[in-house]
Structures are given as structure tokens and as C-alpha cells.
């Protein structure tokens, strides 16, 4: 089956090459037919598990669709080529492919497809290349914002914030979270903003800015948080003011905090660790160690 499909794929490639040839009677290559044959070849190679050849054919199909002005199909082929890159374990070019494909989707008027692709690729590379994943998600958020999909823009922005917290880039993460509040002002949903408020609060503590954390409580907490969340944040503020390590540890280890997104739960744990009071080491009286009062052979003691 695999060999048959691979052979079929190569036959489709030969057909594509013929469509691109010109002659005295055929001055212009038939880009559309060539692209279709390359697409068929890519499918055959994929079924035959020859993923590298499948990707190569998809890229050729994309080039020919572009020659013919078929932007959506060109972007779709790049989209599928990215999947083949994952199959062969080589994601070195997926960032560039994703940005190009999203651009073509937008030119075609398919902004939703553009943002979805960027989000998908960001998920694919966030472990190996978090910096590029951040760029892709920011672009996805911008596209959604332009298209008035504020809820989607907020979701992508939140994913950016989480990645930045993981990278310990707290200032940038703070900016992304504040953008979520701006998007709420543009009509975005408020359902998760209580949790987002707590995240912003924790970021201020991570920057050792207790005053800014207190401001978050009063500016956003009273508006978006549930009563239990307000109590928790207020208790942390008061505990920080009093340097009450026991209360700080209790609040930062609360079930609500532990069940936040993993990046913020880890952040809270690191904050709590700063307030763990280590048991004091027993101090030895050096003078007593140096003074030997044991009996001597002469019946007395050493001075």
C-alpha cells in the first residue's frame, strides 16, 4: 500500500512538471493544474508515510497557487506543510511558514484561519522555542483584535502572559495582562477577570512591589473578584505589611492559588518559599569549648 501510494505520488509530480512546461503553442505554464497535481502527490506521499516528500510537494503546490493568485489555497498548503514538519521532527522553519501563511490568509479575507494557524503553531513550538511562540501568539491576538474578536484576542493574550511568566519576564507579562483589561473595555468577556486580577497581583509581588499589588486589589479586585478572592488578596496585603510570614504562606498555599494556571501556581510557590522561616542553628558557646575544666594528673584543673 505505501509503495503504491509513493509511486502514485511520483506520477502526479511528473504530471505537474508537464503542466509547467511551455512550448510554441503554450506560452504560459498551467500553474493551477500543476498546483492541483502537486497537492495530489502530497496526499499520496502522506498516506505512504513519506512525510518529507509530502512537505516538498505541498510547498511546490503553494508556490504554484501563488503564481495563479489563489492565496487561500497557497496558505492552506503551507498550513499542511507545517504539519509535515512536525511529523519529520524538523520545526526549524515553521515560524516563517506560519507567518507567511497567516499573511496570505489575511489577504484572502480569512483572518480567523490566520489566527487559528498562529495559535496552533505556537502550541507546537512553545517548549522548544518559547520566544517564537510568544511572537506568534501576539500576532494572533492582534489579528483577532482588528477583527473585533475581543474574546479570542483575550485568550491569545493570556497565553502570551503565561509564556512570559514561564520565562520570568514579569514586566512584559504584566503588560499583556493589562491589555486583557483594555480588551474588556472594548467589549470583551469579564467571566475570568477575577482570576486574571489575582495573576496581576502575583506579578506585582514577584517584582517586590507591594504598593502596586495593593493598588491592583483596589483598582481591579473590587470590580472583578469574588468575595473570597478579595478576602485572600486583602489578607496577603495585610500580611506583607505586617511581615507575617505564617499568614503569607497560608494564603499563597491556598487551594485557589494552587489550582491556577500552572505557571502562576509555580510563581506563587516561589513567592511563598521566600517567607519560609528556617529553624535557627543551635549556637555553641565557644568560650565554654575553649575552657577545659577536666581534672589533671595533679589533682587540679587547667586554668
TrEMBL record:
Biological-process GO terms, alphabetical: intracellular protein transport; vesicle-mediated transport
InterPro entries per UniProt: NSF_attach, TPR-like_helical_dom_sf
Origin: domain of life: Eukaryota
Subcellular location field: Membrane
GO cellular component term, pick one: vacuolar membrane
Name of a matching Pfam family: SNAP
Chain segments annotated as coiled-coil in the UniProt record: 153-180
Protein name: Gamma-soluble NSF attachment protein
Organism: Macrosiphum euphorbiae
Amino acid at each position: 500500500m505505501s509503495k503504491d501510494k509513493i509511486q502514485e505520488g511520483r506520477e502526479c509530480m511528473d504530471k505537474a512538471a508537464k503542466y509547467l512546461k511551455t512550448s510554441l503553442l503554450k506560452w504560459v505554464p498551467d500553474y493551477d493544474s500543476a498546483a492541483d497535481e502537486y497537492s495530489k502527490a502530497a496526499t499520496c506521499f502522506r498516506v505512504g508515510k513519506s512525510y518529507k516528500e509530502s512537505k516538498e510537494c505541498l510547498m511546490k503546490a503553494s508556490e504554484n497557487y501563488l503564481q495563479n493568485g489563489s492565496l487561500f489555497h497557497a496558505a492552506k498548503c503551507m498550513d499542511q506543510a507545517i504539519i509535515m514538519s512536525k511529523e519529520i521532527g524538523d520545526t526549524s522553519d515553521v515560524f516563517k511558514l506560519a507567518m507567511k501563511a497567516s499573511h496570505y490568509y489575511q489577504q484572502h479575507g480569512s483572518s480567523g484561519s490566520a489566527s487559528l494557524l498562529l495559535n496552533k503553531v505556537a502550541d507546537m513550538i512553545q517548549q522548544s522555542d518559547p520566544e517564537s511562540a510568544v511572537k506568534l501568539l501576539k500576532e494572533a491576538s492582534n489579528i483577532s483584535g482588528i477583527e473585533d474578536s475581543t474574546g479570542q484576542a483575550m485568550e491569545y493574550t493570556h497565553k502570551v502572559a503565561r509564556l512570559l511568566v514561564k520565562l520570568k519576564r514579569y514586566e512584559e507579562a504584566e503588560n499583556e495582562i493589562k491589555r486583557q483589561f483594555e480588551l474588556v473595555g472594548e467589549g470583551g468577556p469579564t467571566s475570568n477577570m477575577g482570576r486574571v486580577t489575582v495573576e496581576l497581583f502575583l506579578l506585582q509581588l514577584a517584582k517586590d512591589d507591594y504598593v502596586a499589588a495593593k493598588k491592583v486589589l483596589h483598582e481591579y479586585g473590587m470590580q472583578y473578584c469574588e468575595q473570597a478572592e478579595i478576602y485572600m488578596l486583602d489578607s496577603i496585603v495585610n500580611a506583607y505589611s505586617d511581615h507575617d510570614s505564617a499568614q503569607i504562606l497560608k494564603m499563597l498555599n491556598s487551594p485557589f492559588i494552587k489550582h491556577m494556571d500552572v505557571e502562576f501556581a509555580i510563581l506563587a510557590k516561589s513567592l511563598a518559599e521566600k517567607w519560609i522561616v528556617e529553624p535557627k542553628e543551635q549556637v555553641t558557646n565557644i568560650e565554654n569549648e575553649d575552657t577545659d575544666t577536666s581534672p589533671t594528673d595533679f589533682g587540679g584543673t587547667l586554668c
